[in-house]
Amino acid sequence: MTRRISFLIFSSVAVLAIFAFVWLWNRYPNASLPEKVYKVGILVRGSGYEVAVDSYKRKMTELGYREGENISYDIRFVSAREELPRAVEEFLAEGTDLIHTYSTPATQAAYEITKTMPVPTPVVFGSVGDPLIAGVVRDFQHPGTNVTGVTSLSTELTARRLELLYEMNPSAKRIAMPHTAPENGDIAATRSVEIAEETARRLGMKLILLPVRAKEDNAAVAQRIMRQDADGMIVGGDSLVWGDIDMYIAQAIREKIPFAAFDLNQVQKGALLGFGPDIAISGEQSAVITHQILRGRSPAEIPVEVPRKLLLVINQATARAIGIVFPDAFLQKADVVIE
């Protein structure tokens, strides 16, 4: 008897609740349940990624994420590699739902800290030279980890930058390459050097390697790159060098050395030419992947994407400053010409 009375009371309360919900819905048809506020931590190592971050946020807005309403961003620009793990830990302490990264070291730091969590926080990278070599995914089509994103191809494209210098001036033989020292453990930077060495041998060039061990070394290394020693300069997928790319650009112009850099941003700053992804579009691609994950899809199942667009950018103002005249055929290949 007691169970029957309890059941009747429960049923009555449930019916009243349903009637109340229907009444409220009819009275306030536009009302909605409280929406989750997603927290996204953005971790950047290196310079020039501001454009990508802005593009990422704009695309997220298009996808329905309104900053201050249903999403918040904690953006960290970190120079020193050893500071990356602390930034990741702070993201996690804040209850971050997803970490968005730029550079191989930033992505590796996020993966190493999150992979042992009972439920690993998803990581979406917007720029990693080679995620397989970096060890953050197991396969491009099926990453198999809590990490996926958009590769920058910055390591593989190192060869193309050397080839462009050769096409522009076949007599160029000595090419300077500032790079993160191998003992620093930056896999993308080390692989970039290997690719550069292989390409230089094929083209009959000599690579002048200039190792950088800490951010503070960039100024001194840049000053060592002299026209009497180098006919050209390149940079690989190297966030430590990119962090002070302005110093290398200034030295290249001062010494009248053709500098083949990474992307549009670096050429806008004064590098002679660049070949790499349109990072604004890569930011948009990363936002779409983020949206899929926040809506419940596992990063382990989302294929790694390649940049939808690669750009050859040349800077005519820099060319005039250092006394370079681009061949017409070379100019016709350019996607962007900065006057």
TrEMBL record:
Pfam families: ABC_sub_bind
KW Transmembrane helix (keyword) present: yes
UniProt-listed PANTHER family: ABC TRANSPORTER, SUBSTRATE-BINDING LIPOPROTEIN (PTHR35271:SF1), ABC TRANSPORTER, SUBSTRATE-BINDING LIPOPROTEIN-RELATED (PTHR35271)
Protein name as it appears in the record: ABC transporter substrate-binding protein
SUPFAM superfamilies for the chain: Periplasmic binding protein-like I (SSF53822)
Keywords from the UniProt entry: Membrane, Transmembrane, Transmembrane helix
Transmembrane annotation, as ranges: 7-25
Species whose genome carries this gene: Candidatus Sungbacteria bacterium RIFCSPHIGHO2_02_FULL_52_23
Domain of life per record: Bacteria
